[in-house]
Amino acid sequence: MRDATPTRIVGTPALRKEGFGKVTGGARYIDDIVLLGMWHGATVRSSIARGAIKDIRFGAGINWDEFVIVTAKDIPGANCIPLIVDNDQPVLADARVNHPEEPVVLLAHPDKARLHEAVEAVEIDYDPLPAVFTIEESERQQTIVWGEDNVIKRFLVEKGDVDSAWQHAAHIVSGEYRTGAQEQLYIENNGVIAEWSDADGLIIRGSMQCPYYVHKALLRVFDLPAEKVRVIQAETGGAFGGKEDYPSLIAAHAGLLALKAGRPVKIIYDREEDLAATTKRHPSRTRYRTAVDKDGHLLAMDIQVDLDGGAYATVSPTVLSRATIHSAGPYLCENIRVRSHAWATNVPPHGAFRGFGSPQTIFGIERHMDQIAKAVGISPEEVRRRNFLAQGNATATGQLIRDPIDLRGMMDRALKVSDYHAKRARFARENATSSAIKHGMGIASFMHGAGFTGSGERYLNSLVGLEADASGHLTVLVSSTEFGQGTNTMLSQVVAEALGLSCEDVSIAQPDTNRVPNSGPTVASRTTMIVGRLVHDAALALAGILREKNLLSEEFSADEFRAACAAYTAQFGALRSEARYQPPKDIFWDDAKYQGDAYPAFAWAVYVAEVAVDTRTYAAEVVNFYTVQEVGRVMNPVLAAGQIEGGVAQGVGYALYEKVVWKDGRMSNNQMTNYIIPTAADVPNIEVYFEEMPCEHGPYGAKGLGELPHDGPAPAILNAIQDAAGISFTSIPLLPEDIFLRMAEAPEPECLEIVGSAKGPQ
Amino acid sequence: MSAAKIQLSEIRFKVNGVERSATVPPMKRLLDVLREDLALTGVKEGCGEGECGSCSVLLDGVLVNSCLVPALQASGCEVLTVEGLATNGALAHIQRTFLELGGTQCGICTPGMMLAAESLLRKNPHPDLDAIREGLAGNLCRCTGYMRIIDAVKHAIEEPILTADLAPEETVHK
User: Fold this and answer.
1) Which of A611, A591, A620, A599 is nearest to A708 (CA)?
2) Residue A157 · residue A337 · CB < 8 Å
3) Domain check: are B43 and B80 in the same one?
4) What domain range includes position B144?
5) Which residues does chain A have within 8 Å of residue B49's beta carbon, measured at their own beta carbons?
6) Residue A505 and residue A14: Cα distance in Å, rounded?
7) Does the N-terminal or the C-terminal CB of chain A have fewer CB atoms within 10 Å?
């Protein structure tokens, strides 16, 4: 740890860099862009979950000569979107389909209005095959839909000796917890425009998080050299992980149509298509069997994590990895075993969504900690306090916590700012006499690893660039994208701070693979800590170039910097610096044993939910939500708080509103009318408190924070509901009808079903 | 097959203070007329069924989802879109508070959200917290959790913005 360096710009609420365009309507999103001679594309999708394609017929009543039609036969290269697993998701289904809504045929026409009936007129005949739709059906292995055993990926993490710990336990607490699929629901649907020319190759513009993922995918699909594919990110209206891998598929589709049509083709999904066809958060089932001593100290944790991966691997191996590593929570336990599986099912592939596996397992561990507290007879805050990781402790993967860590102080602060004890006492009194509305308080404490897991950052090998013109104006060259989180502003602050300039002196280049180097994907809470640090290093390197030529002294003013840039460019031409990721020397990860330093740094948090449960309507409402988090240095307090508040609102939706209804592997409520997210009238009052403990890995001590706030709300809310209503709910989303069903049952003896139960991993 | 010949109508209306016309199918969505025929792409489509509010505009001062309004219905009306909020390049007060207080993140809901705020403040110049929440409840935002949008509307009630209000709750330095 290093001291917080005094800063001029880092830590201030610098204005959102691209904000002017966003408040004036001038920002150009993909659907706002029209190219000359552009046609529109649409996708014909499978109507069944699994089967062999027998025939594709183009029905009567449509003049098919007006349309460009693309099938798998038109793909010049590999019919595959390679991400982690090779020969994974096809661009277009060929001989068979493996999930509903799988793309089979593409159509393009100059008139967008004509596409709908044409899509309807394409008839696909199938020989249906048996399909599986849930973790349970997949793990039964009666119908094999993936490999030999339906397992897309498995991990085993072992610390200490779990099996010998049970005999010393004062209590053995077991529990099973479930989370549903969740839609990212960015308000801007997915969309891409493709152009093809023999001279330049393929040019893609689109709404996306990861231009170089799209680039890599298209090289194989079109069998082109790197310089013949160019990918440009348009202003992107929200992503949250939902535009991490799927845009590669849409870009391939638009590209195939553009190639065959010989003109630009735009594909914009409407909301129903986007909801039905694109990725969602993995549904999960986690099982905990824990041994604790009489004081509530964790002696052993036997954890089983199961995710529903959907029909193709896509990002499931890495989602499972993060879920696995976060499943033991921010607690010290000498004996831990985590066995985890991502199961194949015949539903559209589940994908990235803020938290990336962690919200699922943190829901499990944080609900479970409350059950341990009940079994031992201590308070929820006390059971956590007694088990918190401290500096020098080792996590489940044996990662030594080297940095200072203040979970106990954060717990104190969270309890104080939420007035936890007074409210809890008052609610207990009032709940005993009030029959209508019951109030409760719930806690979740948790962490989120910043950056790619394990060796991930080494493989990414990120590169950033920085250019200065003769006037001393700087342009940051990164493939890291802005989609609302504040990337542009944060990177401007870093450069301005490092070089003694103001944010107005810094521009961010539009992410365009012809112009910016590959600074890695914009995912995994890595942009501030990893890319921000590289941009900082590039800024220092740029000053170093000027000093080498004796144009700049150690200390310099903004004017001296500008004069140096003018002198350099006049004498030597372009002024440009770079920085490449250097793995920290003291970080070690063993991919085979899944042991070591899983992340360079963790952000830590303690959240408190205050809820009201109406026993007449069975509606649960979050009244207040208090967040205390330690995220290293806060780069921009307005943007950082905005990230926390937005993540909490999504977490509230995850817990209480957002239910994907499945029918034979297809989302049946694929409209905003019946997939409900919180409105301004639904969100609680959200209070945001930061602790700053600068971290050596990020610029000016920053760590990642984007995903953290989605991890804690759901368990905190269900813990609060248990406090209010005396019922332990173990599954989300928790809708009024679910509360009704349990309340209508006879009251249960608390915890009897979980303490000493034989249920759990065997 | 050729599409059935659709009768076109000329729609005349005042958009952002300027007389405009468009010759379009009368049932064409006002959203599409604004975006495609008048190039006012600040009006956004999020759901196409009146749920998300991204396409909100003021039609004769009334907040409407332009995806649910046929062009014919806008004939002879005054339409205000996000492009009409600023005057001569100077941001309207509500635009400034959205920008300065973190009321916009990805920006896709922002035009509609600001028009919802404008509509609310025209009807009720001093709304309390519940009225603000209610007034914005027809417009979905997935990024902000609404806190900073609510702040932006609160601060649009009074001038000037105090920079001290820009920061969130206190931060502890350790």
Assistant:
1) A599
2) yes
3) yes
4) 93-166
5) 271, 671-673
6) 13
7) C
- Residue B55 sits in a domain whose CATH number is 3.10.20.30
Does one domain contain both B13 and B58? yes
Euclidean distance between CA atoms A532 and A631, whole angstroms = 14
CA distance A629 to A644: 9
Contact flag A271-B99 (C-beta cutoff 8 Å): no
Q: Per residue, what are the HEC states of A430-489?
A: HHHHCCCEEEEEEEEEEEEEECCCCCHHHHHCCEEEEEECCCCCEEEECCCCCCCCCHHH
User: Which of B47, B65, B84 represents a domain boundary (last residue)?
Assistant: B84
Note whether residue B63 is domain-resident: yes
Report mean pLDDT in 10-residue bins for chain A, 762 residues. 73 97 98 98 98 97 97 97 86 97 98 96 98 98 98 98 96 98 98 97 98 97 98 98 98 98 98 98 98 98 98 97 98 98 98 98 98 98 98 97 96 98 97 93 98 92 98 98 98 98 98 98 96 98 98 97 98 98 91 94 98 97 98 98 98 98 98 98 98 95 97 98 97 98 71 39 38
The enclosing H or E element of A737 equals helix A736-744
**Cα–Cα distance between A551 and A569 in angstroms, integer?**
11
Distance separating alpha carbons of residues B164 and B174, to the nearest angstrom:
22
Across the interface, do A238 and B143 touch by the CB < 8 Å criterion? yes
A681/B1 CB distance under 8 A? no
DSSP count for chain A of H helices, then E strands: 19, 28
Residue B40 lies in a domain: yes
Kindly determine whether residue B42 and residue A26, on different chains, have CB atoms separated by under 8 Å. Answer: yes
What domains lie within chain A, and their CATH numbers?
19-27+462-580 (3.30.365.10), 33-129+184-277 (3.30.365.10), 284-453+592-744 (3.30.365.10)
Q: CB A40: neighbour CB atoms within 10 A?
A: 20
- CA A402 to chain CA centroid, Å, is 26
> How would you class A338 by CB atoms within 10 Å of its CB: exposed for 0-12, middle for 13-18, buried for 19 or more?
buried
Pair (B78, B103) in one structural domain: no
CB-based contacts of A132: which residues, under 8 Å, 6+ apart? A138, A140, A143, A145, A150, A344, A345, A346
Preferred mutation among B91, B110, B142, B151 to probe A, highest tally of A CBs within 10 A:
B142
| Interface probe, candidates B38, B80, B143, chain A, greatest A C-beta count within 10 A | B143
B174 assigned to some structural domain: no
- The token duo for A714 is 């759901």
Dist CA A57 CA B151 (whole Å)? 56
Residues B118 and B147 in one domain: yes
From B75's Cα to the closest Cα of chain A, the distance in A is: 23
Q: Which two structure tokens, joined as six digits, stand for A704?
A: 């990642």
ipTM: 0.96
Q: Is there a contact between B41 and A683 if contact means CB atoms under 8 Å apart?
A: no
Check if the beta carbon of residue A694 is closer than 8 Å to that of residue A4: yes
State whether the Cα torsion A247-A249-A351-A191 is positive or negative. positive
Measure the N-to-C terminal CA separation of chain B; round to a whole number of Å.
72
Chain A residue numbers with beta carbons less than 8 Å from the beta carbon of B152 are: none
Q: Which two tokens stand for residue B82?
A: 């996000």
- CA separation for the pair A653, A648 (Å, rounded): 9
Residues 6+ apart with CB under 8 A from A142: none
What residue of A is the nearest CA neighbor of B134? A681
Contact residues, chain B, for A27 at CB < 8 Å: 107
SS3 B144: coil
Q: What is the CATH number for B135?
A: 1.10.150.120
How close does chain B come to A186, measured CA to CA in Å?
6
Q: What is the dihedral of CA A501, A507, A513, A518, to 10 degrees?
A: 30
Sheet of A731-732: strands edge to edge?
Answer: A151-159, A336-344, A298-310, A284-292, A171-179, A731-732
